[in-house]
Design brief:
Elements (H helix, E strand, L loop, with lengths): L1 H14 L5 H5 L6 H16 L3 H24 L5 H14 L2 H4 L7 H15 L20 H14 L8 H19 L3 H21 L4 H25 L9 H21 L1
Helix pairs in contact: 1-4, 3-4, 8-10, 9-10, 11-12
Amino acid sequence: MKEMIHLQQVMRRLRAPDGCPWDKEQTHETLKECMIGETAEYLDAVDHASDAEMREELGDVLMQVVMNSVIAEERGAFTLEDVAHDIAEKMIRRHPHVFGDVKVANSAEVLVNWAKIKKTEQTDPAHVRKSALDGIPRNLPALFRAEKMQKKAAKHGFDWTADAPILDKIHEEIAELDAAFAAKDNAAIEDEAGDLLFSVVNFLRFRGSDSEEVLRKSADKFDRRYRAMEDLLREQGKTVDDCSAAELDELWNAVKKTASCKIESK
């Protein structure tokens, strides 16, 4: 607790009139991307199974919590103590099998009780949900948000019955994108491209795939191939900037072919 108070004092000092110019300028809005970025870096640390990295990145996430709380404190809205109090009370309330006399047999029953308790909390007018899609954060990664919306709708019967028609829908969206491109309508191009992405997420979701993970794997594949291309150029004493678009395309295809050969030889 002593260290938490110290961290809070550090943040107040940074926000003071004679503090850091950058920190003083920050608002809840400007810190949104920082919160997302720090959380993503922590997730990378988990993937690396590095305790040292996790410790450091959790500190950065905590710093975001403290900084936003100090900004709210300045506005007279709430404090870090309020944040800690509220989450502790929520955890006690949602774990009656630990802090009360409710009995559960397994984690599945815990989740059922959690959902029921969460629903009773939503009687507060500020939290009453009018739509099945309420409660899905708008600032989730777009693919993740799209998938969660589709899953919520599917629970209420709004879903496809087979994957083939979804694939037809994807082709339909591609045709509409082609038409928008032919018309040189930039607004329509963005709109149709968004619909295409949403349809692809729907196709993957219906088939039981995680669209975020699917795209992450493709991004990882691009990362490997691009680095391999850089390595080949480095052996020639060159960099990507030294090559024409045609040369890079030829090199990229060579890297792809090499990667395919490695997979086939396994």
